[in-house]
């Protein structure tokens, strides 16, 4: 059995990663037991799930909103919502069912924030753009020589992603950032797979256009 | 992939591939603690939760408690379904002490019961012997005729007119001769 364990899992967002197929089954079984204990009202049983999925919940909300503070609020509220509604969660034998369910809550919460703040219409380079300090803080590259050029490209990419309409942004975040399958995206966004594929293709095209525009203005 | 709209856009997938690097985001250090705090905080029940808990609730009763509950339920049902008592068959008069001090007219309820009677009137010196019809009261028996009349304080003579025949009040024994060989019922207010 192979574990990759960070010294402080809560700080890094890491959690013991099980690599073999048997371990994956053990992990799914462990998750199922944790969820069952949560459904019985055992609060501490939720902690391993929070540690395990805090990165993806925060990452998706951060990419949707472009603000660490809002993303933290959304991730926290979404995970609390998940705990309080966990008796309604149905695994139904699907892999990653809990993370998919959690991401649906995260996406919906993020959309609520976007609607309330009307951020979806903000132009590229406006106030909705990710601050450079935040982007560097989020990335934390290890090689200082690569950090300057890399961080600039990363900032352009983050800004272009945020400039996309929300429906394209969520599709790219789930598909190209988080590398989810179309089946998982269908469960999260409740859209037909054909629609999702079309949306991803169009989103990629819009993203390239935005990057080209920002390249021309540099 | 989509075709370039201006012909100058790079066609490779490098920007798209670079999106995967955006996955490297470090969540705030306090996120787990925040979530666990909010989860541990007591939360008011929603209607759905309360209803679900009610469905799951087990009710355990002792035999004595169950019998007591059944007795209370039976008593409650009997009270609800008990028919209303009929009005008393008597001329209703206020207490004498009240009447003596009362300057205003006094409401007197005349009642007459006869299952064979079709029309009943009351007449007396208080209305110059002009008959006042008695009616059936809602919810009361069909044989019961009722009329309420405002009378001044004093002594009054009266009779019932039942299907054309003068009849004394059968429930009042006090009477006075009418000068024609018969007697009128007497009401003292």
List the helices and strands and how they pair.
The complex is a heterodimer of chains A (218) and B (189).
Chain A: H1 9-12, H2 21-39, H3 47-65, H4 68-84, H5 97-117, H6 132-139, H7 144-163, H8 166-177, H9 182-189, H10 193-217
Helix pairs in contact in A: 3-4, 3-5, 4-5, 5-9, 6-7, 7-10, 8-10
Chain B: H1 14-18, H2 31-40, H3 47-56, H4 63-81, H5 96-101, E1 106-113, E2 120-124, E3 132-133, E4 144-151, E5 155-162, E6 165-167, E7 175-177, E8 183-188
Antiparallel strand pairs in B: 1-4, 2-3, 2-5, 5-6, 5-8, 7-8
Uncertain residue segments of chain B: 1-10
Secondary structure tally: strands of chain A: 0
Number of helices of chain B: 5
Number of domains of chain A: 2
User: What is the name of the CATH superfamily of the largest domain in chain A?
Assistant: RNA polymerase sigma factor, region 2, helix turn helix motif
Mean pLDDT of chain B: 78
**What do we call the CATH topology of the largest domain in chain A?**
Rna Polymerase Sigma Factor, Chain: A
Shape, principal axes of CA atoms of chain A: elongated
> Would you list the SSEs of chain A in sequence order as H and E?
HHHHHHHHHH
What's the shape of chain B? rod-shaped
* Number of helical stretches of at least 4 residues of chain A: 10
**SS-derived structural category of chain A:** mainly alpha
Q: Whole-number radius of gyration of chain A?
A: 18 Å
Oligomer: heterodimer
Examine the secondary-structure arrangement and name the CATH architecture of the largest domain in chain A: Orthogonal Bundle
Q: Please, what is the average pLDDT of chain A?
A: 78
User: For the terminal residues of chain B, how far apart are their CA atoms?
Assistant: 108 Å
Secondary structure: helix percent of chain B: 25-40%
